[in-house]
Structure formats: structure tokens, C-alpha cells
Amino acid sequence: MPRRSIDRPAKGPGSMINLKTGETLEHPSLPLLCERIRFYREKAGIEQKSLAKQIGVTANAVSNWENGRGRPDVNLLPEICSALRISLYDLYDLREPSVRCTAGEQLLLDRYRRLSAGHRTAVDQMVGTLLEVQLAESAPRISRLTCFQKSLSAGYGDPTEFEGEGKPLYLYSSRDVDRADCIFTVNGDSMEPRFHNGDMVLVSRIPDAPSLQHGEIGAFIVGNETYIKVYGEDGLESLNPGYAPLHFHETDAVYLIGRVTGTLDPSQIASAEDVDRYLLLHPEEA
């Protein structure tokens, strides 16, 4: 018996034939997600195997997605978007309400997406450098001083040992702050009315060949005690007349920490936000 033949009409790419009737069937339309993956992959000039390698799947998996034979796991969508350099809104052809680009910004974005990976890296680095420069220009000037926990006695002395190490304190720059090296807290009332108990004073260290003019106010160590006093001709004097001068024997060890340059205004202490920006620009001080 001769084999029955079927007249098959001309068919286009992707069309299918009903073997019983010989009619051409329309190919089911691809899911939007599958179409968009192929569209943006081809737009980016990425091969299927390259995209597959970036997101950790096989090339066959990518081929199946683009031909509608499967869909990517939802957990892979962020990686797919990252590899194609698009957003989820782009992938699903949705308008992103939180992003409103001007025509100029959109043009720049389109041009950026057409760059090679190496050129994109160069652009990223250039933008990062410009942002750092802009941040440095807009950031307030900040100085880092050492704040010692040991108090400067403005009375009869604190018998605890002077701590050679302190904690960093970040301050907005000013004439007095820039002249200082460290900060101490006043303990007592012998230096009133200029310095009060609890005041934080700025001190300029004099580590080499200590010197202070008579009448200047300094921070001193005498034995295990620390003082804020006026350097007088006969000893260390107080501003409060209720306190007698401190006299020392020539064999006593009197050490000058530094010159007191002023009182720290609490408003000069830098905010946490400004300190973070400062440390971002000066990572070596973090």
C-alpha cells in the first residue's frame, strides 16, 4: 500500500505542523521574562555560555530559558540582572517609580551599557575619584587630638598616675584647636573664674626643651600629680585667690606637659556623621 503523503504548507521559523491535518500551528508566544533575557543578553553582546558562567548555570539552561522551555529560579534573578547590568524593572519591562532620569542621564546610562567591561571599570574608577574629591571639598576640616583621661588638678592635686595614653577625639578645626595637641579635663576650682571644674582644656605639647613664659598657663606633672596652673616666678600659681602658690624644691621633678591654649567648646566636637566622612577620606587614622 502506498504511503499516505501530507502536503505541508510553507512554514516560517518556529511554526509547527499538525501531522493529522497538515495545518500550520502558531508557535506559542514566549513568556515575557524569556524574551527579555534574550533581548538584554544580545544587547550586551554576551554569549549564552558566558552568561551561564557568570550566574553559575549551564549554557543549556540559558538556551532553555530563551526558548521558553523553562524559566530561571527566582533566586537567580538578581544575578541575571547584575550580569546583564539591568534592573528587575528592566527585566520585567516595568516602569521603575523610584528612578526618574533626565534625557541626558538616560543617554549617559545607555552609552555606559554599550561600553566593554574594561571601559566600564575605568568609568567606575573615575566616578569614584570624582566623588572622593567632591566629598573632600564639602567636608568640614577636622583635627584629631588625644584626649587624656587623667584630670588636671585645679586644687590640691590628684594622686593617681598620669596616663601616657589617651583616646582620639575629633574636633572641627579652629585657631585654638589647630594649635593644640591634646585635651585634659579640669578638676577643681583653683583656676576660676577662667577655668571651671569639668572644663576641657586644649594643650599644646612642648616635648623638646620645655619652656613657658612667666604668666602663661600650663599643664604640669609634679610627681604623680597633674596640675593646670599659672607659671609664676616663685612657683605655680592659681587664678583663684583662695589658693596659695605651689612651691617646689629644686630637687623636685616638675615636668611641663604643655601650654594651655584655651577651653574646648563642646560644639567643636565633630558629629559622628562628619567623623565617618573624615575617616573615609583618611582610612589610615581609623
Description:
- The chain is α+β, with helices and mostly antiparallel strands and 286 residues long.
- It has two domains: 32-128, 434 Repressor (Amino-terminal Domain), CATH 1.10.260.40; 142-268, Umud Fragment, subunit A (Ribbon), CATH 2.10.109.
- 31% of the residues lie in helices and 21% in strands.
- It has nine helices and ten strands.
- It has helices at 32-44, 48-55, 59-66, 77-84, 88-91, 103-113, 117-138, 175-179, 272-281, and strands at 16-17, 24-25, 142-153, 167-172, 182-187, 200-205, 217-222, 225-231, 236-237, 254-263.
- It has an eight-stranded mixed sheet with strand order 4-3-5-6-10-7-8-9.
- Helix 2 (48-55) crosses helix 3 (59-66).
- The longest helix has 22 residues, at 117-138.
- It is rod-shaped, with a radius of gyration of 38 Å.
- 17% of the residues are buried.
- Residues 1-20 and 156-163 have low confidence and may be disordered.
Précis, in short:
With 286 residues, the protein is of the alpha+beta class. The chain has helices spanning 32-44, 48-55, 59-66, 77-84, 88-91, 103-113, 117-138, 175-179, 272-281; strands spanning 16-17, 24-25, 142-153, 167-172, 182-187, 200-205, 217-222, 225-231, 236-237, 254-263. Strand 8 (225-231) and strand 9 (236-237) form a beta hairpin.
